[in-house]
Amino acid sequence: MSESIPSQDATEVLRLEQVRKTFNTGTPLETEVLHGIDLRLCRGELAALVGPSGSGKSTLLNIIGLLDTPSAGELYLLGQPTRNSDDATRTHLRNQAIGFVFQFHHLISAFSVLENVLMPLMIRHGKPSGDDVERARNLLEEVGLGPFADKKPTQISGGQQQRVAIARALVTRPPLLLADEPTGNLDSRTAQSVFELFHRINAQFGCAVLVVTHDPRLAADCARTVQLVDGRIVSDETNLPEA
User: Fold this and answer.
1) In the CATH hierarchy, which top-level class contains the domain 43-69+87-238?
2) Which of 28, 100, 166, 172 has the least C-beta neighbours within 10 A?
3) DSSP assignment string, 122-167
């Protein structure tokens, strides 16, 4: 599928125009992994990115997350072109605009649950303010972990740890939340619970959410499913709710 991308508007968070990614450029091993990706994501959208292993999902997510740059094309984040931005600009934009949730939560075991949630704010401007702490505690309440704020990550379950990671990703109030197989390390019941939390967070905070998942049931629960095969978007569909 190759569809023209609508022009930038007030609700648009992310726009990719003919994004390509090539590795080992100029060598006999030169390989193009992404072949002209067009994608748009607006505030309040919850979309799943699916595709077989080797389809380019991780490469695409790294580019969307400003962890890598396209070889061609352009990525706009909050209307700002990013491909030719310097590292400092990209880092600032990434820290301001994007929250990340990974398959493995990467919590710091020496810190409390509350301190782990505060970490992005501490990295941004040092010692957290009273307002920062209140925001983090409110987020822990939102994900059902208010009473666990002073516990260490090793004292709570895997599903609870992933909820802490979600709160941590949201503490900077990013307009874009990227989740890379966020339930891949959880049992099916806990995975469903975590995914229901994504729905609630998406509705409550209005951020755009893009979830990479191998689970077709979770993808079907998203309002939109984008399928990537061999570095190309082959379908981009709205999932109609069951009657």
Assistant:
1) alpha beta
2) 28
3) HHHHSSPPHHHHHHHHHHHHHTT-GGGTTS-GGGS-HHHHHHHHHH
